[in-house]
Amino acid sequence: MRDVLKRLQSLDRPIRVAIIGVGSAGQGLFHQCGITPGIECVGIADVDLAKAVAAADACERPSRVVERQGELEDAIAADLVAICADGEMLAQTGSADVLIDASSAIAEGGRFALAAIETGKDLVMMNAEADLIFGPYLMRLAHDRGLVYTSCDGDQPGCIARLVDDIRLWGFEPVMAGNIKGFLDRYADPTSIIPEARKRFLDPKMCAGYTDGTKLSVEMALVANAFDLETMVPGMHGPRADRLIEVFDLFDFAAIRDGERPVVDYVLGSRPFGGVFAVGYCDSPYQQKMLGWFPSEVGEGPFYVFDRPYHLVHIEAMRCIVEARLDREPLLEPTYGFKTNVYAYAKRDLRRGERLDGVGGYTCYGLIENCSANPSRSGVPICLAEDVTLATDIPKDQKIFLDDIDYDPDRLDYRLHALAAAERP
Q: Which terminus of the chain faces fewer neighbouring Cβ atoms within 10 Å, N or C?
């Protein structure tokens, strides 16, 4: 990290960043760009212009609201933060080096990413849903143009990636990449979750997507697709635990290792909430002797658990930007294509003619599954389960398949997903 800081401080010109989405993560990213040496945010986009202006004002950055591409470039040239409602226009700017998508818009996120790649920008994704559903295609397009495509640091997938990289560096064999979730209610919806959303300053639909486990599945699918992992069951096991060390009583790691494919999973209720973990195998007598100093923290071997008790979102994101721009290295990308995806299940009894409302809505939740699990019949990816109509009744908790819905295969998100699914590692 000292080397990263030194290089940033010695740059002749700062790394210029554009940010789409000024929700909780986007506001934090904008703030952090203003206090990290060598990184500067030159433009922000959000459909709520007042929110974007307020973010700039809170950081005491002079700004200008713009409506056309030329105005945007002129504002940046005048050392003003260019603010616009059109994310695609910001993605097309020639005055930024890196685009961060921190929006929660899925189809639009694909459009933003295409515009950024077409105009030569490295792409950092804090839009996990668009990252998952379009990632293999976007990654290939970026590589073809000599650009970097990466998931962002600071969110759980990026933090897990660093932890897995660490244990590999130590000579441990990864067996499980894990998440720690504090609370789960598959049937949470934008109405039932309002009190919790207000406490956390979150949009209710977004908060419902966290609470019903969809976001967790999306995050772990990103990890699985980057490291060639799988899930043991749809939605993962997710046993309840008071302490992380209990994983050794809750999972048969020897059997997992014998299966020759590391897995993703999570524990529910364990502290630290918001933490991540990785389990590695090491049969070196010397390493086991040394780690014997810490049996109550990491285990007694040959399987050991290592955790990070936090993910700091925008605070940690800057390192990822530096690595992408200066080192041309992604932190996390879908190297193995769709090893897993997240499919829609009914939150309640659904009737023919109802419209699905996607991640965090009233109609469905998402579960991670291995893509090879049911090749004869395709499920509806939760990231595509927005504004499509049911062609049949679906009982509560039943998986929704593509032949259960009426949809337009030429719609942008379905078209981009088809291109992503056609990519081969």
A: N
CA distance 81 to 76: 6
User: What number does CATH give the domain 340-422?
Assistant: 3.90.1210.10
Computed from CA positions of residues 292, 296, 298, 304, in that sequence, does the dihedral angle turn out positive or negative? Answer: positive
Q: What's the token pair of residue 344?
A: 């829609």
Q: Are 265 and 238 in contact (CB under 8 A)?
A: yes
Tokens of residue 247, six digits: 């994983």
Does 229 have pLDDT greater than 70?
Answer: yes
pTM for the full predicted model? 0.96
302 upstream amide cis, omega within 30 of 0: yes
d(CA 307, CA 298): 9
pLDDT digits over 376-413, tens only? 689 999 999 999 999 999 999 999 999 999 999 999 99
Q: In whole angstroms, what is the distance from residue 185 CA to residue 396 CA?
A: 14
What are the structure tokens assigned to 71, written together?
């105005």
Question: Domain 2-126 is in which class?
Answer: alpha beta
- Gap between the Cα atoms of 190 and 349, Å rounded: 17
| Residue 56 one-letter amino acid | A
H helix or E strand, kind and range, residue 216: helix 214-227
8 Å CB contact between 97 and 16: yes
Which residue ranges make up each domain of the chain? 2-126, 156-308, 340-422
